[in-house]
Write a structure and sequence with these properties.
Layout lengths: L4 H29 L9 E8 L4 H20 L3 E9 L5 E9 L3 H5 L4 E7 L10 E12 L13 E6 L6 H6 L3 E6 L4 E5 L5 H26 L17 E6 L4 E4 L4 E3 L2 H5 L4 H21 L1
Parallel strand pairs: 4-9
Antiparallel strand pairs: 1-3, 1-5, 2-3, 4-5, 6-7, 7-8, 9-10, 10-11
Length: about 290
């Protein structure tokens, strides 16, 4: 057979093809052996806050939030804004939302951290490029947070009139809720529902998610030192990504990924970004298993 040039070429092509199939199957089998993150199927709380950069930082925070909302809509997830503080010239100083959809946390869990933008702001008359930042936090909403014991004596609850959207009814009643967890100083607000009871329930759920995230952060910080994708370590100051408008470039610094698709990404096309981050995380996990 190998004496026949045509058959030899066909056999060589088949060997190369089957060799790649074997590599792919082996990789798939190894990924199946990875322990499943029980949080992956959970809904999530998305928190976006303006960082350094004044008005432009708030505008950028608004751009990031819209990016995530459009991605959620493409996945047919539901987005419910729980609390928002608008920027003076657009965007948000802070916006907190609940995202409901199967696998939502698995898709967005690598977004936590500091995001940096380099662009000419709409308020810039000299055409100079400014650098601004916004921070993103992604917290899973899990059934197990019901198991977190919170002493009522550790809570300070305030009611106030909602300042955001919601119609005249909201603004005429003290339906908004602010809960402070005194031992940790954690403060949560919810003012989007007309019912004070619904706002209280949403605020308590968010508070438990934050407390659980803080506890997990302490436990995972030491283990995550060697990881590039530090999920849930609580390090919101880590600059994970830069958006360079002049170059139409999005750079993820954790894995050295450069995508010249900024326009599409800001419109919510996050599939390539999410898939690449997931694969790199799985590679880290496999390496960790091999080292162990």
């Amino acid at each position: 057979m190998l004496d026949d040039p045509e058959l030899r070429e066909m056999a060589s092509e088949d060997m190369q093809r089957l060799g790649q199939v074997l590599v792919d199957l082996d990789g798939g089998l190894q990924r199946l052996l990875l322990p499943k993150d029980p949080r992956d199927d959970a809904n999530l709380y998305l928190e976006v806050r303006a960082g350094a950069g004044g008005d432009e930082a708030a505008i950028f925070a608004g751009d990031l939030f819209r990016m995530y909302v459009r991605y959620a809509e493409s996945r047919r997830w539901q987005v419910e804004i729980l609390n928002e503080h608008a920027g003076e010239h657009g965007g948000y100083k802070e916006v907190i939302a609940r995202v409901e959809g199967h696998g939502a946390y698995s898709q967005l869990k690598f977004e936590s951290g500091a995001h940096c933008v380099k662009r000419v702001p709409s308020t810039e008359s000299q055409g100079r490029i400014h650098t601004s930042t916004a921070t993103v936090a992604v917290l899973p909403e899990l059934d197990e947070i019901d198991d977190i014991v919170i002493n009522p004596a550790d809570l300070k609850t305030d009611t106030f009139r909602a300042s955001g959207a919601g119609g005249q009814h909201v603004n005429k009643t003290d339906s908004a809720i602010r809960i402070t967890h005194l031992p940790t100083g954690t403060v949560v607000e919810c003012q989007e529902e007309r019912s004070q009871h619904k706002n209280r329930a949403r605020a308590m759920s968010l508070l438990k998610a934050r407390l659980l995230d803080a506890e997990r952060s302490k436990q995972s910080a030491a283990q995550a030192e060697s990881r590039r994708l530090q999920v849930g370590t609580g390090d919101r100051s880590q600059r994970i990504r830069t958006y360079r408008y002049k170059d139409n470039l999005v750079s993820d610094h954790r894995i050295g990924l450069n995508l010249y698709r900024l326009t599409e990404i800001m419109q919510g096309d996050l599939a390539e970004l999410v898939d690449t981050l997931t694969r790199e995380h799985q590679a880290d996990e496999l390496k960790s298993l091999g080292d162990g």
